Amino acid sequence: MMLNRRDFIGTTALAAAGSCLGADGRTYLPSPVTVARKAKFRKPGEKIRMGFIGSGGRGGANLDEFYKLGEDIVAICDVDVNALNGAENRIKERCPDVHRYQDWRKMLETEKDLDAVVVSTPDHMHATCAIAAMESGHHVYVEKPLVRTWWEAERFRDVAKSCGVVTQMGNNGNGTDFQRRSVEILQSGVLGEIDEIHVTTDRPIWPQGLARPEGADPVPETFAWDLWLGIAPARPFKQGVYHGFKWRGWFDFGTGALGDIGCHAMSFFWRGLDLRETVSVETVKTTKTFAETYPAGTIVKLVVRSGRQAKPVTIYWYDGATTPENGTAPDKETSRRITDGKSETFGGTAILGSKGRWWNGMLKLTGEEKFVRMQDHPAARAVPVSIPRIQVPDGCSQHHREFADAVRGGTRPFSDYDHSVPLTEMVVLGCISQRVPGRLDWDQASGRFTNSEAANALLRPHVRAPWTIG
After folding, report:
1. What pLDDT is recorded for position 460?
2. Where are the beta strands (DSSP E) in 44-171?
3. How many domains does the chain have?
4. Which domain holds residue 62?
5. Which residue, of 65, 114, 270, 367, has the fewest CB within 10 Å?
C-alpha cells in the first residue's frame, strides 16, 4: 500500500518522538531527539525553498538538478569559496539573491524558512549536517552513502522518524523506469531462490592504498580547512591530498569504493529480493593494506537475510581495476560460472537463482541458451507494473523530482530512510571488513559483531570536540 506522506507521519512520528531508544529497545543512542521546529509541507505546484550544504562536485550536480526542476534556491554553503562562486554563477539567472555561507551551522541558524536541505559533503559529515537539518525542521536529501558509520545510520533513522521529515538518499537510479521495472521483475520470483549475487565496479577512481604524507601546506585563503574536517580528527592540510574528491579513500573521511557505488549497484536487488539485516561480512581477498586508507582492490563477501526465502543471500563485491591473477577481481573460474562458460571476464551485476540468472538487465532462465534483454524476455513481459513511475521534463532527474514532490505532500520517496538506512548499514559494515580481517559475524538485535571487538570499535564515528552529531 502506498502511504501519503502525511498519513505516514501520523503513524510514525508520535511513536518515535521523545524516545532515545531504537524500535527494539536498544540503548545505544545518546539523548532524546531534539525537534526545534516542525517540518513544513508545501502544496502541490508550490516551489520548495532549498538550502545546499556543499555546492561543488556532487553538491553542484544536485544543485543543478533542483534548479532545472524550478525549485527556489535560497541558500548555498561550501567551505571552498571557489565552489560557492561557481554555484552562484550557474543559478544567477533565476535565483540572483541566493544567500552564501561557508559554515553550514550559520546557514541553518539564519535560514529559518527553508523547506529542505541538500547535504553533499564528504561522507564523514553527512550525518552531522543532515541530523542538524532534520532537527531544525528541514526535509533532507543526502548524498550516498547516507552516512559513514553504522551508529550514524541508526541515529539518522530515529531522528527522521521523530522529526516527521521526508528523506532521500542520492542513489539516483532509484528514480528511473528501468530500475523500477527491474525491482518488479525480481519481486515476481522469476529467478526462484537466490543463491549468490556478484557485483563489480571500476572504482576506486581516486587515490587510495597509500600512507599519509608528511608535513603541512599553507591553507588557501578561500578554503575553511577546519570546517572541512568537521567531526574528523585534526590533521595538517596537504594540498591535493584530501580536498577535491580525493577524500573518499581515507578512513576518516570516506567509505571507499564500496561506499561510493554499493548504495547504487545494490539498491535494486536489495528491494527486489526483500533483503534485510546483515548476517556476516568478510573481505576474502585484498591487495596491500594501509593504516589510513582502503586497499586498492578487494573482494568482500556479504551474507544478508531475505524476507523471501529461508536461506540467506550471499553477495560478492569486487572493487579495484585489477586482474584475476593478483586476486582482486572475479577469477576466471567464477567468471565462467556466472556466464555459463561463455566468458573468462565478468563485469556488472549477476544474480544467480534456482530458476535462472540475471546479468546486467538481461534474463536467462533454466534451459534457455542465451541471455535476453529484460524488456524482451517473455517471463519479464508477463510481470505486471506495480510501482509508480515519475514524470519529469526532458533532461530532469526523476529521483530529485520524487523528493521534491514528497515535500509537497506526495508519497514517500523510493530511497527514504526505510530503504536507505538498512542498505547503508550493510555497506558500511562491509567497509569495516576491509579494515578488520576475518569473517565478522553480525547481530542486529544487539548492534554488535559477536566475534570482534576491533570491528565493534569502528561502529561509531570519531567526533572531534566541540563538534556534535545533532
Report:
1. 97
2. 49-53, 72-77, 99-101, 116-119, 139-142, 167-169
3. 1
4. 5-175+395-421
5. 367
Question: Is 235 part of any domain?
Answer: no
Q: What pLDDT sits at residue 20? A: 34
DSSP bridge partners of 117: 51, 140
| CATH number of the domain bearing residue 158 | 3.40.50.720
- Can you tell me whether residue 373 is helix, strand or coil? strand
Q: Determine the pLDDT at residue 31.
A: 56
The SS3 assignment for 59 reads helix
Residue 322 domain flag: no
Is 85 part of a structural domain of the chain? yes
Residue 356's pLDDT band (cuts 50, 70, 90): very high
Report the predicted TM-score, pTM, of the whole model to 2 decimal places. 0.92
pLDDT band at 5 (very low <50, low <70, confident <90, very high): very low
Mode of pairing for the β-strands spanning 313-319 and 349-353: unpaired
Cell 529467478 appears where? Answer: 191
pLDDT digits (tens, 9 = 90+) for 240-299: 999 988 999 999 999 999 999 999 999 999 999 999 999 999 999 999 999 999 999 999
CA-nearest of 192, 292, 198, 186 to 249 is 292
168-182, 322-336, 338-352: the lowest-pLDDT one: 322-336
In a domain, 185, yes or no: no
- Report the alpha-carbon distance of residue 55 to residue 117 in Å, rounded: 12
Alpha-carbon distances, residue 210 vs 245, 252, 292, 300, 325 (angstroms): 15, 14, 8, 20, 21
Cα-to-chain-centroid distance, residue 273: 18
Radius of gyration of the chain (CA): 22
Question: Which of 393, 389, 391, 390 lies closest to 70 in space, CA to CA?
Answer: 393
Element (H, E) at 318: strand 313-319
DSSP 163-220: HT--EEE--GGGGSHHHHHHHHHHHTTTT-SEEEEEEE-----S--S-PPPPS--PPP
**Cα separation of 470 and 465, whole Å?**
13
* Three-state DSSP class for residue 334: helix
